[in-house]
Automatic annotation (TrEMBL):
Transmembrane segments: none annotated. Residues 22-129 form the Rieske domain. It comes from Acidobacterium capsulatum (strain ATCC 51196 / DSM 11244 / BCRC 80197 / JCM 7670 / NBRC 15755 / NCIMB 13165 / 161). Keywords: 2Fe-2S, Iron, Iron-sulfur, Metal-binding, Oxidoreductase. InterPro entries: Cholesterol_7-desaturase, Rieske_2Fe-2S, Rieske_2Fe-2S_sf. This is Rieske 2Fe-2S domain protein. It holds the Pfam family Rieske. Residues 347-357 have a biased composition (Basic and acidic residues). It comes from the Bacteria. Coiled coil: none annotated.
């Protein structure tokens, strides 16, 4: 039975963001030498770079003196220097290291001044940035932060690849599109994936996990050509899919000793824009020539199909249509909104978040 969405504010032009967590800011390969890179995440302007010792950093792109973007200045591998008055900042902590205008008559201790710096770590080819709740002050104890997300791996010998696409929608629309199980035969219909003629009823088992839910290990859909290719190994094929707040979809495919794993994220960049990033690792067909180029070609096509659909959806959302979620295909979207609300309520009350799932659930849909 169809029902009206119970959180309409989350589906409008803006959405409530989840802080106190890690988000991928950009590909880390772009941060080299003395380059300063600009990026906007969570609506916050960032400047990112890599120190001479290899450590990544991320700062708010604004000098605390007069607000000019620090990205307009210089970086010598150690300190970021503001273009306006030459103030220097150690970029990992944000601590001010120099104010050239000070004289021996001044008593100001510049080391007590800090630009805003965010914890920043490199994983799977991305610069991950931790965003504390606005107004909570500097992150003093970085050892207590949650682990930086990364692609699951099941051996040291694997290939990897990355894909990205900008989406003209708020992060909620991007995420529920990411977890939507019914759009495949329509958005991704093609000879190498699925067709409308291949639609059939499916039964999947879900279970609660901390901050998310899991589509339990199962035999993958028989109407997806890539899965059929794994039949050459003669081993049972299983797939497990996890969704974890704030924005992460993990997929693991196992076929004996062969495996494929991916981490897909949808990251808010501006109030009505987000970015999808896919990081994947695998040892399937490891010795086959050009396998990475082939995977990148089809993966790019796959992500572009989602991107085009979200662009088209954005056109319809301009007119504020009435929206709905239905059972069972939209149940994961409902869980997402409930998990998000529970986390927001927990941050406000200090009580542990209440999971919307009481236990395992079996869902049915056609795709």
């Amino acid at each position: 039975m169809a029902q009206r969405l119970v959180v309409p504010e989350a589906m409008g032009p803006a959405t409530t963001l989840l802080f106190n967590d890690w988000y991928p800011a950009m590909r880390s390969e772009a941060l080299r030498g003395k380059t300063l890179a600009k990026q906007q995440i969570m609506g916050i302007p960032l400047v990112l770079g890599r120190r001479a010792d290899g450590k990544l950093f991320a700062m708010r792109d604004a000098c605390p003196h007069r607000g000019i973007p620090l990205s307009c200045g210089w970086f010598d591998g150690k300190d970021v220097t503001c273009k306006y008055h030459g103030w220097g900042f150690e970029p990992v902590t944000g601590q001010c290291s120099a104010i050239p205008s000070l004289t021996g008559h001044d008593t100001l201790d510049c080391s007590r001044i800090f630009a805003t710096a965010f914890p920043c770590e490199e994983r799977d080819g991305y610069a991950w940035v931790y965003f504390p709740e606005p107004g909570s002050g500097r992150v003093m104890d970085r050892t207590s932060l949650p682990a930086v997300p990364e692609v699951p791996k099941f051996g040291g010998r694997f290939r990897s690849a990355h894909l990205t696409a900008e989406l003209p929608c708020n992060v909620d629309h991007g995420i529920i599109g990411l977890m939507d199980p019914a759009h495949g035969p329509f958005v991704h219909q093609s000879w190498w994936w699925r067709s409308r003629a291949s639609i059939h009823e499916k039964e999947k088992h879900f279970e609660p996990i901390p901050q998310g839910f899991r589509m339990a290990s199962h035999k993958p859909s028989g109407n997806s050509a890539p899965y059929k290719l794994l039949g050459v190994y003669g081993e049972p094929i299983t797939t497990t899919i996890d969704f974890v707040l704030p924005n992460r979809r993990y997929e693991t495919i196992r076929c004996g000793e062969k495996w494929f794993a991916s981490l897909t994220t949808v990251t808010p960049t501006a109030p009505n824009a987000c970015r999808i990033d896919v990081a994947a690792a695998w040892n399937i067909f490891y010795s086959v020539p050009f396998v990475k180029a082939i995977a990148m070609f089809f993966g790019k096509r796959f992500v572009e199909q989602d991107q085009v659909t979200m662009i088209q959806q954005a056109e319809g959302l301009r007119y504020d249509p009435t929206l709905m979620l239905i059972d069972d295909a939209d149940r994961p979207a409902k869980w997402y909104f409930a998990l998000k609300q529970a986390r927001l309520d927990s941050a406000r009350t200090g009580e542990p978040p209440r999971h919307p799932m009481d236990g395992p659930v079996t869902l049915h849909w056609r795709s």
